[in-house]
Design brief:
alpha+beta, 4-stranded mixed beta sheet, globular
Length: 313
């Protein structure tokens, strides 16, 4: 006999409120590392990009007005497809868990859609057993033009070579690579006009590299900071706020692609944040059904605010 719990209005309200509360509790770390903005419509203009203007030197008594218009571009967020998770509730205890914000059933469903948000922000998608930078976000393609109709690949000069500043066998993170990434961002004109919050995302493979770099550069680290890095918790080192993830992509050569970006230059547009619904599905023996979804997209405002370091593992 199938379990048939009637989902009342108060169940629906409670479930919706619980999903919102759990979404706030699970704290997707990438949300705090980008600029979050509300979005609506089929596409959202996030930046009118104005290229650098060149000044001119006038002549005494000249009646000519200078005319130095900059090139203009526009970058877009596009209304995304839904990120969703749902399941049928076939037993009474599962229904009770679905109504309990502290249950693993509830947290697992919310975490599932938050992982989708994470991938959208980063710009990755799982291909086989690895992640690839194949869509927008921090690392993928951006959409430009007067309308959202031109796709721009991540600029090749913004990659830091796997052997940058290294003699001999290429390897992982190094001071030379990190300095090349941060210096290139600092040299961009916008970097001189604002205090940037710089973030980096690494896998557990680079944890040892990071600690070794601290030792090599004689960076002052107290035991708490070292333990945070070892435990994979966010922390600052060498001027970068480090985050840890197993979802960092690789390129076609198998090199890990480590992104370094400024918070001010990555925008996540939210059409609808994480929401939950519950109802009885009359097409499935009237079983209760729980459903969570979210609509988000992300892009770089300016490519100069992002660098990607190739690392061998």
């Amino acid at each position: 006999m199938s379990y048939r719990q009637v989902v009342e209005d108060h169940h629906k309200t409670t479930y919706t409120n619980n999903v919102m509360m759990v979404a706030q509790q699970v704290a997707n770390p990438l949300r705090a590392a980008v600029t979050v903005a509300s979005a609506s419509g089929e596409a959202q203009n996030v930046a009118d990009l104005i290229d650098k203007s060149e000044y001119s030197e006038g002549e005494d008594y000249s009646r000519e007005n200078p005319d130095n218009p900059p090139n203009r571009r526009r970058r877009w967020l596009v209304r995304p497809t839904v990120i969703e998770h749902g399941q049928y509730i076939t037993k009474e205890e599962k229904f009770d868990q679905a109504m309990d914000p502290s249950s693993q059933l509830m947290r697992n469903s919310v975490l599932t859609v938050e992982r989708g948000v994470y991938d959208k922000i980063l710009g990755v998608k799982k291909v086989g057993n690895v992640y690839k930078a194949v869509r927008a976000g921090i690392m993928g393609k951006a959409i430009e033009g007067k309308g959202p109709n031109s796709t721009m690949n991540f600029p090749a000069p913004n990659y830091i070579a796997v052997d940058q500043g290294i003699s001999g066998t290429p390897h992982g993170l190094s001071v030379a690579k990190l300095r090349a990434a941060t210096e290139a961002m600092e040299l961009e004109d916008f970097g001189l006009e604002t205090d940037m919050s710089i973030y980096g995302l690494i896998t557990p493979k680079q944890k040892t590299d990071l600690i070794n770099l601290a030792v090599e550069t004689k960076t002052s680290l107290n035991p708490f900071e070292i333990e945070n890095i070892r435990a994979g918790k966010p922390g600052m080192l060498l001027g970068i706020n480090w985050l840890f993830s197993n979802r960092v992509p690789v390129d076609d050569s198998g090199y890990r692609l480590i992104p370094i970006w400024s918070k001010e230059n990555v925008v996540m547009g939210v059409w609808q944040d994480v929401q939950g619904q519950m109802w009885n599905d009359t097409a499935r023996k009237n079983l209760p059904y729980m459903y969570n979804d979210v609509y988000v997209d992300a892009t770089r405002i300016e490519d100069g605010g992002v660098r990607i370091i190739r690392c061998a593992e």
